[in-house]
Amino acid sequence: VSTQSTGSNCRPMALRGASHSPDMDRQDRILQRHLRAWEHPTNDSSVRSSRPGSSAASKWLDSESDDEAGPPPRSSTTRHRRSSLNTDTQGGEITDLKNEVRGLRSENEELQARMAAADKTLSHTEKQLNVTEKRLVEAETQLAEKQHFWEMDSPSRWRSTPRSSQGRNFSPSSSCSTPRTPASPHAVHASLHVVGADGLARKTPLASRHGRRMSMDTTGQLTGRQTGRDTAAQRVMQGFMYPQEEKSYLHSTTFARDLIELSRQAAPLYEAEPRVLELVSPCYVFGDIHGNVVDLQFFQNNLWKLGMSLTAGTFLFLGDYVDRGQDGLEVAAYLFSQKIELPNKLYMLRGNHETRAVNGDICWYQKRSFLHQCRQRFGTDLGDEVWEAVNCAFDRLPLAAVIDGDIFCVHGGIPRPICEYPDVISAIEAIPVVFDPDCSDNDELCQVVSDCLWSDPATKAQEAALDHTGFGASLRGEDAVCFGVDAVNAFLERENLSYIFRAHTSLTEGIDLSKGARVFTIFSTSKDHGGGPEATCGCVLVDNGQIIVINRSPKYNFEKMQMQGKSPKTIKYNDSSIAP
């Protein structure tokens, strides 16, 4: 076979011989037809059969002109098959791509949510880390300051010895942070412990946690053991801890009988004590309570959370347990119960409201009078019986105390000197164990008792009007007096003491210092004295040679109301309408 080329068309030519057969011509035509089909593709419609349902391949096989037409064009069939294949393939690929896009979008949204949660967790962790680092820095600063403070003062725990006319027999600390009293073994701690609604105590600037943490299981077991004893003291303490649950008991004749029994049991304990107590540190000192159960519960929940029996030290209350507040019965019953259970842990001094002339004055105090509360709750007859029983115990309360032979504690203030006695404390010790100042004819002893219960520190305006002994008339009137700086210095020097702890004067801040920081006024109730919702309450801890002030946070009421979901309201009070 030879090939003849013309341009781009190549046509095969058969060898010409003498014996040329028709079959060879037919094969030649078919070959040329196929070559033309490859070189010049035609439309599918030109080679498609006119009969419905027939294909090019069937036409080539069944037609009579198969020799001329030959097989269907390869290019048209292949292109048709390739077009169908490509269309199906592209459709499947598009579907797969759409599904993949949906999966990627879902995965992207999930990753974004995870990233947002991770960012939130990271931000919270960073805040916690900053708080922890801040606390760590504060703790390190506190530790350094404490170590420096201890190294500077080197306090030692002093134990008081029986007092004699020659004064205290002990060697004072070599150094003291209070320059006014260089011989005192007690240094005023340069800080203020503030207890908030969260139950944590913070002090400034030497901030440290005050109070003890405890196991809830231990507390439950101790409470269960105490409540298991069915005595008047335990019933009262149960009612004090859960006033809402025990409301029916606190308004029943059973509570009245229990209070009468507690008064009879507590009276001999007070009668056996000297008129001037000799106490040793550690000792918590509290001021006026005035029937305020809420603040007394605050001290219980933060200072003797495990109970007084498991708390180190003693507890000294400076008087004024009833009147003004509406829970004087509960306060008296609770303190009597603690005294009966722990006679060597809790001590109570007499205040001016522990006299019949004051707590029975319904005309002056009206509904806030202790006698009115007794009658209102238990009726006239039983109420009068309760009131008399409680006052019989009050008649036997001591008048003063001395802590570590260095700190004089009294409800009102220092008495005026009495010529018949070598010193003031000796005059106090001469007071009869059972003494009613309103019924006694001994004017000198009545004066000593009145000064202990009613006197106040003189104001700056009163200082100029005081006599040569440092005493003068009080704004309270009648026989009450006030004492100035000269009287304080003379008393402390003569009695070989360093500080005076007193109550009696209402304070919004809880603790106040006066007379050259040698007189501490302690007020342990924040209600019923016109201080408003920002009033606070406080106490003082004498421990390890230090005088530590503990105050409730001024924002305590607001924080507590916010924790309960309430909105605090500021109320203005008129102090002039409050009775002294």
Query: Biggest sheet: strands, sense, closure?
Result: 7 strands, mixed
Oligomer: single chain
Taken from the alpha-carbon principal axes, the silhouette is elongated
Number of helices: 20
Helix-strand category: alpha/beta
> Considering DSSP H and I runs of 4 or more, what fraction of the residues is helical?
40-55%
Percent strand equals 5-15%
Using only C-alpha atoms, the radius of gyration works out to 50 Å
The pLDDT mean sits at 77
Counted beta strands = 18
Order of strands across the main sheet: 4-3-18-17-6-7-8
End-to-end separation in angstroms reads 142 Å
Low-pLDDT runs of 5+ residues are: 1-19, 43-69, 149-182, 205-217, 572-580
Structural summary, described in words:
- With 580 residues, the protein is α/β, with parallel strands linked by helices.
- It is built from 20 helices and 18 strands.
- The strands form four sheets. Strands 4-3-18-17-6-7-8 form a seven-stranded mixed beta sheet, covered by helices on one side.
- The longest helix has 80 residues, at 74-153.
Topology at a glance:
Layout (H helix, E strand, L loop, with lengths): L1 E5 L2 E5 L8 H18 L4 H4 L8 H7 L3 H4 L4 H80 L33 E9 L5 E4 L11 H12 L4 H10 L5 H4 L2 H19 L4 E4 L3 E4 L6 H11 L10 E4 L10 H14 L4 E3 L7 H4 L2 H4 L4 H9 L1 H15 L5 E4 L3 E4 L13 H6 L13 H12 L1 E2 L2 H4 L7 E3 L7 E3 L1 H11 L3 E4 L8 E4 L4 E4 L15 E6 L2 E7 L3 H8 L17
Helix pairs in contact: 7-9, 7-11, 9-11, 9-15, 14-15
